[in-house]
Design brief:
single chain, 179 residues, mainly beta, Phosphatidylethanolamine-binding Protein, five-stranded antiparallel β-sheet, three-stranded antiparallel β-sheet, 8 strands, globular
Length: 179
């Protein structure tokens, strides 16, 4: 099983929750992909967090599927420069217009090179996939990155600035694996 935290710094944890699904539970149908043909709406779930260290200066959020059959996983969403004063993102904050994101937050293009949330879409017959929502508390107010960088580049740059990490895992199954 692929470990999405492999070789990441060992840092304190804080809380990340969603009223839209329980950690370890199935993502709502609307959080599945329309673009990738999974019958959803590509809407990001509501996220709430608390307990980040007092020295937190900003946050970065990534959504990663380590079970994608690519050899490198699949990045569904990545946002950085979320102000430290923010404690939640509303449902559909990952829309392409970015209007529901806090001022100053920047979305990195996902694997389809779209600057938005891409819903769950495991390939037919591939079984259950994990969607790891990771919120990193950072020791800098802003990261300076190229506007077209990848989520992997974001992860590389933020690695040296992580002071704490919160994670929430949602699951999705292909139709042939759902019961």
């Amino acid at each position: 099983m692929n470990d999405p935290n492999w070789k990441l710094p060992d840092v304190p944890a804080f809380d990340l929750v969603s009223p839209d699904f329980k950690s370890g539970g199935i993502l709502p149908q609307w959080a599945r992909s329309d673009i990738a043909g999974a019958g959803g709406e590509d809407r990001s779930p509501t996220l709430h967090w608390n307990g980040a260290p007092s020295g937190t200066k900003s946050f970065a959020l990534t959504v990663f599927d380590p079970d994608a059959p690519t050899g490198s996983g699949w990045w569904h969403w990545a946002v950085y420069n979320i102000p430290a004063s923010v404690e939640s993102l509303p449902q559909d904050a990952g829309s392409a217009d970015g209007q529901l994101l806090p001022q100053g937050a920047i979305t990195v293009p996902n694997e389809l090179r779209l600057p938005s949330y891409l819903g769950a879409a495991p390939p037919a017959g591939h079984g259950e996939h994990r969607y790891v929502f990771t919120l990193s508390a950072l020791d800098v107010e802003r990261l300076e990155l190229p506007t077209d960088c990848t989520p992997a580049v974001l992860g590389f740059v933020l690695r040296d600035h992580i002071v704490a990490r919160a994670q929430l895992v949602g699951h999705s199954r292909t139709e042939s694996s759902e019961s």
